[in-house]
Amino acid sequence: MTPYQITAYMSDCALCPRQCHANRAAGQTGFCGQTAEIGVARSALHFWEEPCISGSCGSGTVFFFGCGLRCVFCQNLSIAAGMAEKSVTPDRLAELFLELQEQHAANINLVTAGHFIPQICRALELAKGTGLTVPIVYNTGSYEEPSSLRLLEGLVDIWLPDLKYYSSELSEAYSHAPDYFTKASAAIAEMYRQAGPPRLDAATGMMKSGVIVRHLVLPGQVKDSKKILRYLHDTYGNDIYVSIMNQYTPLKHTAHIPGLNRRVTDEEYKRVLDFAEKIGIENGYLQEGSTAKESFIPPFFTSVT
Q1: Consecutive H or E run containing 229
Q2: Whether the predicted model's global pTM rises above the 0.85 cut
């Protein structure tokens, strides 16, 4: 990806399904809230991803400012709706990747990066040309355009997408995106096309390539969760991993929203897990214990300069 190509994408941005066509190269902000300047909120080892991602060394996680989805219950609201005081260049981003590898990161984990795909392509090309060898993880809410994801072909090894909703009513209410399932399922299909079935290191159990689809169970939405799991299993069988999460955390900004002002009950989560077992999902992860805590939300605004 050349600087000229990056400018072309940023001058009329249509990277995500919002299709806002903002001239981000000229300083306009898109729906994501970002210009063409790369905003990095945090670059550090992260130990709370799925075991085959974090391992014992930690995942080299890079959180980007902005988001094209903006869920009302976002746990990372400070960065999803924020902007960096100081941006980084693709060259500096490449250096951050290499620094994380030097800290023995198991991989480089790009979190909510869709609105910076052209710049990230450039940074990955630079880093891989100067010694970056660990797998690259693309961690996304999945409201993505397959055409944008195709820019990452050959650069990303592991795809870590969410599949949040089946119901268009839910996705409209909680993410202002009634077409979420249509867009997200198409994006995941593109991810699977690129990655194929999972490959794990036989000695360590760490994932080398593949797709792990995350589904966050929401309060009162067991039926929607079952529809998501049924779709995934009918479509991919056990050629993907499914991570069923119970960590929904009601925060101050969801206290007034009916249905989102409480945690998922043990009984609700068990019903979803029982259904996953019933339909034959074998490759997956569940969460045990009390994970719905604000302490699981990492500190942002860590210096990356």
Answers
A1: helix 222-236
A2: yes
